[in-house]
Amino acid sequence: QVQLVESGGGLVHPGDSLRLSCAASGRTFGTYVMGWFRQAPGKEREFVAAISGSGRSTRFADSVRGRFTISRDNAKNTVYLQMNTLKPEDTAVYYCAAEKALYIAAGFIEGEADYWGQGTQVTVSS
Hints:
- By secondary structure, the protein is mostly beta strands.
- The protein is 3% helix and 47% strand.
- The chain has one helix and eleven strands, in the order E-E-E-E-E-E-E-E-E-H-E-E.
- The protein has one helix at 106-109; strands spanning 4-7, 10-12, 18-24, 32-39, 46-51, 58-60, 68-73, 78-83, 92-100, 115-116, 120-124.
- Strands 2, 4, 5, 6, 9, 10 and 11 form a seven-stranded mixed β-sheet that branches. Strands 1-3-8-7 form a four-stranded antiparallel β-sheet, with no helix packed on it.
- Strand 5 and strand 6 form a beta hairpin.
C-alpha cells in the first residue's frame, strides 16, 4: 500500500510559478512511475506529466509542455511538478498518481494508476 500526499497548491496570478510536491510512503519509491493529473470543474481528469522510476524518462501533455517540468528525488520519496507561466486554464485540482512499473505506459497516461493522492487545488486568477 502506497500513500500519496500532495502539497504546494494555492492561488496565483497568471504568469506566476508554483511547485507541487507529492510525498509517498513506502520503501520502493524508485520502482514506481509517478505522475500528475488534474481535473477542472465540470471537466474530466486529464494527464499532465509523468516520470519513470529512474527519472530518466518523462512525458507531458501538449497543453503544459515547455511550461511544466516533472522531477523526483528517490531519496526523499517525493515527486515534484514545477509549473511556470501559469494560465487561468491551468486552474484545477492536481492529483499525484503512482504505478508500479518499469516504464511509462499508455495506460498510465490514460489514468490507470495503482494509487492516487487526495489532490491539491491550484487556482490561477487575476
